Amino acid sequence: MNIAKDKAIQISQAIARADNILIVSHAKPDGDTLGAAFALTNYLLSLNKNTTNFCLDTLPEMFSFLPNSYRLTSDHLVFTKKYDLVILVDSGSLAYAGVDKLITALQPGFTLINIDHHASNAHYADINLVITEAASCTEVLFYLFVAWQINWQVDIATCLLCGLVTDTGGFVNPATQYHTLEAAGELVRHGANLWQVLQNTAYRQNINNLKLWGLAFSRLKKVVKYDLVYTFLTQEDFINCEADESATEGISNFLHILKEAKIILVLKETSNGFVKGSMRTAEDDIDLAKFCQKLGGGGHKKAAGFSLPGKLSYVNNKLSIV
Ligand SMILES: [Mn+2]
């Protein structure tokens, strides 16, 4: 896949003009928004740029293997400094990133760049590089780096591969296209270690997490009317299994192995009083992003999510799916 030449030039010129650059990863960061942020950071550091990495939430320990990830801060004071350039990665909107209010408080005069792959992306920046066919934001960045003909470093390749691995569930979800695998192949050629990335991300479950997964699996239920299979986890489940909320990551991707329905829905209660829904499909004619947008969420056609206030029993009534 290629990036429009003028866009690649526009972004490289914005970087060339900038001394101080703020890179924002979305709230509740995953391997893609962090992989993209640190691939970019490692590249910008090689150009001797001053970079600041912000995320509303702190770095999950599992991603500390990403080179330079120790630089991530959730200190709001970074928004009191002046930047020439602000780059958001893997964020469909400023609100999704969790920085809509913080950004408006920044001193004006900066260029805003949005690099993403979400179908629901609102094209909210001065320069928007959004490729919805890409399996991850890091796949988009890979094409950008290829267009720029950068000097590849192992650190950059590792960060990009992390986003590809985590957003595709280890190259198994339907977003995984030939170009995704080609990009991954190139990254391995540039020195990224696939096994190291897998061991730090998808292949690092502990017993408590798998007990929680077991609970979710034991509750699988089919709703014939919608050709949907769903399951749920309550706050009590997390406490009983001594697992934290991030332990559910991967359940909905894993359920692609299920052959009895076209749509998967995993519901979980969060500690701050919301119910998060995670939806998956392998069908080309179903648009889950559109469905989830109606509920205030978003995502991709085949993988999307939403968040609604309330307990499970209340939200179930409202959804009237399950
Ligand atoms: Mn992503």
Number of helices: 13
Lateral strand order in the biggest sheet:
3-2-1-4-5-6
Contiguous uncertain segments of 5+ residues: none
Let me know the average pLDDT: 95
Compressed to H and E, one letter per element, the order equals: HEHEEEHHEEHHHHHEEHHEEHEEH
| Strand percentage | 15-25%
Q: Mind telling me the CATH superfamily name of the largest domain?
A: inorganic pyrophosphatase (n-terminal core)
For the sheet with most strands, the description reads: 6 strands, parallel
Helix content: 25-40%
Q: What's the architecture of the largest domain, going by CATH?
A: Alpha-Beta Complex
Radius of gyration based on Cα positions: 19 Å
- Enter the CATH topology name of the largest domain: inorganic pyrophosphatase (n-terminal core)
Q: In the CATH hierarchy, what is the class of the largest domain?
A: Alpha Beta
What binds here, in terms of ligands, is:
manganese (II) ion
Task: Identify the overall geometry.
Answer: globular
Using brief descriptors, characterize the structure shown.
six-stranded parallel β-sheet; alpha/beta; binds manganese (II) ion; 322 residues; inorganic pyrophosphatase (n-terminal core); Diaminopimelate Epimerase, Chain A, domain 1
Question: Would you kindly provide a written description of the structure presented here, covering whatever features stand out?
Answer:
The chain has two domains: 5-200, inorganic pyrophosphatase (n-terminal core) (Alpha-Beta Complex); 207-319, Diaminopimelate Epimerase, Chain A, domain 1. Helix 2 runs antiparallel to helix 6 (154-167) and helix 6 runs antiparallel to helix 7 (178-189). Strands 3-2-1-4-5-6 form a six-stranded parallel β-sheet, covered by helices on one side. A six-stranded mixed β-sheet has the order 7-8-9-10-12-11, with helices on both faces. The chain has 322 residues and is α/β, with parallel strands linked by helices. The protein has 13 helices and twelve strands. The protein binds manganese (II) ion (MN).
